Amino acid sequence: MSDFVQQQNTVCEFNSSDSWVILLPIEQNIKRKIEAVGTPLKDWDIQINYGIKTGFNDAFIISTDKRNEILANCQTEDERQRTAELIRPILRGRDIKRYGYDWAKLYIIATFPSRHYDIDKYPAVKDYLLSFGLERLEQTGKTHKLNGETIKARKKTSNKWFETQDSISYWDDFSKQQIVWIELSDEPKFAFAENVTSVNTVFFMTGEHILHLLGLLNSKLITWYFRHCIGTTSGVGTNRWLKYTIEQIPMAPTSVDLEIMAKEICQHYSKDKDNKIDLLVCQLYDLNSEEINYISSL
Questions:
Q1: Are residues 160 and 79 in the same domain?
Q2: Total of domains in the chain
Q3: Does 262 or 151 have the greater pLDDT score?
Q4: pLDDT for position 285
Q5: Same domain, yes or no: 112 and 90
Q6: C-alpha to C-alpha distance for 98 and 127, rounded to whole angstroms
Q7: Which structural domain, as residue segments, surrounds residue 252?
Q8: Is 131 part of a structural domain of the chain?
Q9: What pTM value is reported for the model?
Q10: Which residues of 98-112 are buried (b: 16+ CB within 10 A; e: fewer)?
Q11: Is 258 inside any structural domain?
């Protein structure tokens, strides 16, 4: 045991109030290089938000068939066009995979309070929502007795009965290029999305150089750094990809090559493309061949 300790020992300098981790010498070098080269994500021109919380998914998240039924019930072409714009594709956490997603053909009735919709301009949507009962849709937090059944309204807010529970002032960001991911995952599953909305169990990032950041976040090197240097776990083996921890990751300066490779892998995933991105990311952080081999072996 003493021989093992002598062979595996490493020196840590506790000379500041910053958090610390115990790493092998090669890992300490890799950590230092990442932090020397990169700029924390929070200092980039990006925004991170949650998806939408409706308070009543059974009513607001609908299938393609239900969407078609609502559109068929519109009385005029103008109403139909307005309604089609209101009902938007939505992603759930389970739909998201590495670099992409498998859309389940679900939609959300996106009546965000911040948009101040007039529900009377959407009579087909109004009729559909009211089929669930006003008592269930209202945002009062009250409990009702109806035909012997106890019905709980959505939590109390200042929003109207036909609106989603959250105001979503950043609704316009859903039309932009995004990186979407879920909090709990055993491996990085950051995906590229555009013109799609997401539920509140999903984080999404918008801003500049989205494809570059996507390649970094999915790379082996950044995954290693997150797991060993700043990340937290759920206690059952999965990582917690939380906003405040992801914002601490030092991101390498922008690379046109990485953006091109990330765009290609989003269009068609392959392990070979993934490996090439891993190598390029290591090079962006100035890792030497020994350090690259170490990360590649993980």
A1: yes
A2: 2
A3: 262
A4: 98
A5: yes
A6: 39
A7: 10-45+208-296
A8: yes
A9: 0.88
A10: bbbbeeeebbbbbbb
A11: yes
CA-based nearest residue to 207, from 43, 87, 20: 43
Cα angle 244, 247, 248 (rounded to 5 degrees) comes to: 95
Q: For the CA atoms of 77, 78, 83, 85, what is the dihedral angle to 10 degrees? A: 110
Q: Could you report the per-residue pLDDT of 162-213, keeping only the tens digit for each? A: 999 988 899 999 999 999 999 988 888 999 999 999 999 999 999 999 999 9
Best CA proximity match to 52, nearest among 101, 98, 100, 111:
111
Whether 84 and 116 map to the same domain: the answer is yes
Contact (CB, 8 A) for 184 and 239: yes
Residue with tokens 């610390």: 20
Contact 61, 90 (CB under 8 A): yes
- Give the pLDDT confidence score for residue 17 in this predicted structure: 47
Of residues 56 and 12, more confidence is placed in 56
Can you give the pLDDT at residue 11? 54
Backbone φ and ψ of 251, nearest 5°: -95, 130
- Residue 237 identity: G
